[in-house]
Automatic annotation (TrEMBL):
Domain HTH merR-type: 11-79
Protein name: MerR family transcriptional regulator
GO molecular function: DNA binding; DNA-binding transcription factor activity
Keywords: Coiled coil, DNA-binding, Repressor, Transcription, Transcription regulation
Location of region: Disordered: 112-132
Keyword Ion transport included in the entry's annotation: no
Biased composition regions of type Basic and acidic residues, renumbered to the chain: 122-132
Sections of the chain in a coiled coil: 73-108
Amino acid sequence: MRDNIRRNMPLFPIGIVTKLTELTPRQVRYYEQQGLIRPARTDGNQRLFSFNDVDRLLHIKSLMEKGVNIAGVKEMLKQSQQVLEAKKEAEKAKKELSEQELRRLLKRQLIHPGRPGQTHLTHGELSRFFRH
DNA sequence: GTTCTTACA
DNA sequence: TGTAAGAA
C-alpha cells in the first residue's frame, strides 16, 4: 500500500493538468475553491497536482457532464470517501472476526443497505444536485 | 513563458 | 465560466 504516497505526490502544474483533463484553468481553480480538490503549492505559490488530484478532476468532470452541480459532486465525493472508509473497516473486521461472524455481518448489510449514516434523499431533494 | 489573484461582462 | 490586468 505504498502506492498511495506516490499517487498523492505533488507532481504537475496546472498547465499539464488542463491538458490531461481538458478542463480550463478557470474550472480547476474554481473546483479547488469549492473544496473539491486541494493541490499542494510550490514555494512560489504555484499549484502542484498529484495523480489523485487528476483522477478526482476527471471524476468531477464526468459528473458535471452528466448535469450534476457542485453540491452534487461534493456529495458523490463524500460517498466515495465513505466507501473507502467502509473498506478499511471491512479489513479491520476481517482480522478481528471469525469467518462465521463476518458472514453474518455481510448478510445483515445486504438486507439493510445504507444503515450507518447515509443520506436518504427524497425525489424533490435530489433535484438540488442538478442544474436547473 | 506560466501561473496567481482579483474583478468584471 | 470566460477574459483581462498586474504581480510573481
